[in-house]
C-alpha cells in the first residue's frame, strides 16, 4: 500500500461523569487525511486545510506521530500527509485527537498493520502530548476503537470498548469561543469530598450498566457530573440555558464535551434528537455568540478508510 485516505472522527470525552476515563466517537464530523509513501526517509505535511495549524513536523500532532512510528521500526520510506480539518480546533470535540489518532491509523496501514489498537492508542497519546501537553487517552481511544470506550487504566494502558444502544443520538452545540484546556483544568479542585466521589463513581457504573442493558432511563439518571461540571460551566456562556433547554425537550442528559466549549446532549431516537436540536438552537439564538450545531449517530466503527 502506497496511498491511503482516511476519515478520523470527532469525539466527546468525559461524557459527564467519566472525567478522563470515558469517551465516544461522533459519526459525521471529523478530519480527512491522506498518506503517501515516499522514497525519502522523512515526514512532510504537504497541505493543511480547514484550520490554521503548524507545518512543523515536530510540533504538529499528526506528523509527530507518523515520525515517531517510522523511527520506531526504522522504516525505509517516508510519508507525505495532508490534513483537512472538518471541525474547529479548541472546540472540545477532540480536534488534536482526531489528527493524532488518524495519523497513527494511517501510518500503521502503510507499515503493514504492525501495531495493535493499544499500541496505536499509545502513539496517538504522544500526539496529544505534543499538541496539548498531556498524553490523555479518552479522545484518541474513542476515535481508534469507535463507539463508547472506558479507559480502565493508564499504567498499564487498558481500554474497554462498550456497547452502544442502537437509538442513541448526540446533539452538540459549539459556541464560537475558545476555552483553553489548561484554563479548564486550572479551575478544577485539587480535592473533592468523599461523598461526591462516591456519587460520581456510582454514576459511571450506572452509565456503563445502562449502555450494556440498553436501559435509557438508567443512562439518563447516570449522566450527572457533580465533580467537574460545576466548576467548568462558568467558562461557557449560557451553559445552564442550553442544558435546561435540552433536558426539557427530552434529552437523556447534557454536559460539557471535553474541556468545552461544546455542549453535548444524548437522546433516544431521531425524533427526540430533532426536538432537542430545535430547543438548543432556540435557547442560543440572539445571545450574540455565533455557534455551530449538529445531530449525529454514535460512530461504532472509529477511523475508517475512504475513497
* CA gyration radius, whole angstroms: 19 Å
Strand content: 25-35%
How many strands, which pairing sense, and closed or not: the largest β-sheet?
A: 7 strands, mixed
Written as H for each helix and E for each strand, in order along the chain, the element string is EEEHEHHHEEEHHHHHEEHEE
| Global shape | globular
How many DSSP helices?
10
Structural class estimated from helices and strands:
alpha+beta
Query: Please, what is the average pLDDT?
Result: 95
Helix content: 25-40%
By DSSP, the count of extended strands is 11
Kindly, what is the distance between the CA atoms of the first and last residues, rounded to a whole number of angstroms?
Answer: 14 Å
Low-confidence stretches: none
Can you put this structure into words, describing what you see?
This protein has 307 residues and is of the alpha+beta class. The protein has 10 helices and 11 strands. Helix 1 crosses helix 3. The protein is globular, with a radius of gyration of 19 Å. It starts with a strand and ends with a strand.
In short:
With 307 residues, this protein is α+β, with helices and mostly antiparallel strands.
Quick tags:
307 residues; alpha+beta; 37% helix; 27% strand
Write the layout of secondary structure elements.
Blueprint: E1 3-13, E2 22-38, E3 43-49, H1 61-72, E4 78-84, H2 95-110, H3 117-132, H4 138-145, E5 148-154, E6 157-162, E7 168-175, H5 181-186, H6 194-213, H7 216-222, H8 229-232, H9 239-248, E8 253-256, E9 263-268, H10 270-284, E10 291-297, E11 304-305
Parallel strand pairs: 3-4
Antiparallel strand pairs: 1-2, 1-11, 2-4, 2-5, 5-6, 7-9, 7-10, 8-9
Helix pairs in contact: 1-2, 1-3, 2-3, 2-4, 3-4, 6-7, 9-10
Amino acid at each position: 500500500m502506497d496511498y491511503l485516505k482516511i476519515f478520523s472522527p470527532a469525539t466527546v470525552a468525559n461524557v459527564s461523569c467519566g472525567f478522563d476515563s470515558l469517551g465516544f466517537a461522533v459519526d459525521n464530523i471529523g478530519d480527512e487525511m491522506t498518506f503517501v509513501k515516499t522514497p525519502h526517509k522523512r515526514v512532510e505535511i504537504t497541505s493543511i486545510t480547514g484550520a490554521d495549524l503548524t507545518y512543523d513536523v515536530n510540533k504538529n500532532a499528526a506528523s509527530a506521530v507518523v515520525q515517531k512510528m517510522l523511527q520506531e521500526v526504522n522504516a525505509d520510506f517516508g510519508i507525505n500527509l495532508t490534513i483537512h480539518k472538518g471541525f474547529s480546533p479548541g472546540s472540545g470535540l477532540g480536534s488534536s485527537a482526531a489528527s493524532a489518532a488518524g495519523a497513527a491509523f494511517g501510518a500503521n496501514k502503510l507499515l503493514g498493520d504492525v501495531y495493535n489498537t493499544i499500541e496505536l492508542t499509545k502513539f496517538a497519546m504522544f500526539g496529544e502530548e505534543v499538541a496539548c501537553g498531556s498524553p490523555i487517552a479518552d479522545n484518541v481511544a474513542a476515535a481508534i476503537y469507535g463507539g463508547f470506550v472506558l479507559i480502565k487504566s493508564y499504567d498499564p494502558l487498558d481500554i474497554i470498548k462498550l456497547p452502544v444502544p442502537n437509538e442513541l443520538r448526540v446533539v452538540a452545540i459549539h459556541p464560537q469561543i475558545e476555552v483553553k484546556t489548561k484554563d479548564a483544568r486550572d479551575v478544577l479542585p485539587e480535592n473533592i469530598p468523599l461523598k461526591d466521589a462516591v456519587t460520581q463513581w456510582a454514576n459511571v457504573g450506572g452509565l456503563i450498566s445502562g449502555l450494556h442493558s440498553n436501559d435509557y432511563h438508567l443512562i439518563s439518571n447516570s449522566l450527572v457530573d457533580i465533580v467537574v461540571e460545576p466548576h467548568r460551566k462558568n467558562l461557557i456562556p449560557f451553559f445552564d440555558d442550553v442544558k435546561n433547554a435540552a433536558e426539557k425537550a427530552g434529552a437523556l442528559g447534557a454536559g460539557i464535551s471535553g474541556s468545552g466549549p461544546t455542549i453535548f446532549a444524548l437522546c433516544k431516537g431521531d425524533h427526540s434528537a430533532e426536538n432537542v436540536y430545535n430547543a438548543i438552537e432556540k435557547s442560543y439564538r440572539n445571545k450574540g455568540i455565533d455557534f455551530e450545531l449538529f445531530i449525529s449517530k454514535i460512530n461504532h466503527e472509529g477511523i475508517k478508510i475512504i475513497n
